[in-house]
Design goal:
Largest sheet: 4 strands, mixed
Structural class: alpha+beta
Number of helices: 5
Order of helices and strands: HEHEHHEEH
Strand content: 15-25%
Distance between the termini: 104 Å
Radius of gyration: 31 Å
Shape: elongated
């Protein structure tokens, strides 16, 4: 179950974002019978580390925030489940599913620079369909949690290509916002600290004489 919960596809951006502080608002999961806010935070951090952010950076250049704006978990097949119980779970032994859990999540990801400016906002929707069965599905206890997490993973899969299209520009903006005003004279256009010093004045030269105009 843990492997299924936190499996992140390997789809790294061609240009990764610099290191960002991470914020997650997954309060909608608090009312769910499935996943919890900590599950959303762990999944999002794995997505950032594996696909979105440059792990070699040691300085943060802003923040990235995940907010879950909608979460809906539905349980179907209750009639089938009652029939299974009435027949001492014989159909389950034969491979028939016991019931199903359907997750529906809407997520929003914001990229914010160090000055608090929101540079971009991306939204994604994800759905899941988890089967409770004896041989090929998941347990009745873990399926609701997996349904929520799988739906969130699908929402992040929808957001990733949107972010990939803007990644190079976002990286540049984040770094510029962090380093604005932090330059040396030699880095300014047209100015070089390696320019030769002017030659000293010749003390033996004859001073120029100003002509007498009679005034």
């Amino acid at each position: 179950m843990n492997k299924a919960l936190f499996a992140i596809p390997a789809a790294p951006l061609a240009t990764r974002l610099p290191l960002l502080d991470v914020g997650v608002d997954a309060n909608v999961f608090q009312a769910s019978a499935g996943a919890n806010p900590e599950d959303a935070q762990k999944l999002f951090r794995l997505e950032l580390e594996r696909n979105l952010m440059d792990a070699k950076d040691t300085t943060t250049y802003g923040s990235v925030k995940l907010q879950l704006t909608k979460s809906d978990l539905q349980r179907t097949g209750r009639g089938l489940h009652i029939f299974q119980l009435a027949t001492l779970m014989t159909p389950t032994i034969l491979g028939i599913p016991a019931e199903f859990f359907h997750g529906n999540v809407q997520a929003e990801v914001q990229i914010i620079d160090v000055k608090g400016n929101v540079l971009a906002t991306y939204t994604g929707k994800g759905k899941s369909n988890i089967t409770v069965a004896m041989y090929y599905g998941y347990s009745q206890k873990g399926s609701p949690r997996l349904a929520d997490v799988q739906a969130l993973r699908e929402a992040l899969n929808e957001i990733r290509p949107q972010l990939a299209a803007d990644a190079a520009a976002l990286r540049e903006q984040l770094i510029l916002a962090k380093t604005a005003g932090v330059v040396t004279v030699g880095e300014l256009p047209g100015i070089s600290t390696d320019a030769p010093e002017p030659a000293p004045a010749d003390s033996t030269a004859t001073p120029a004489v100003t002509p007498d105009t009679g005034k």
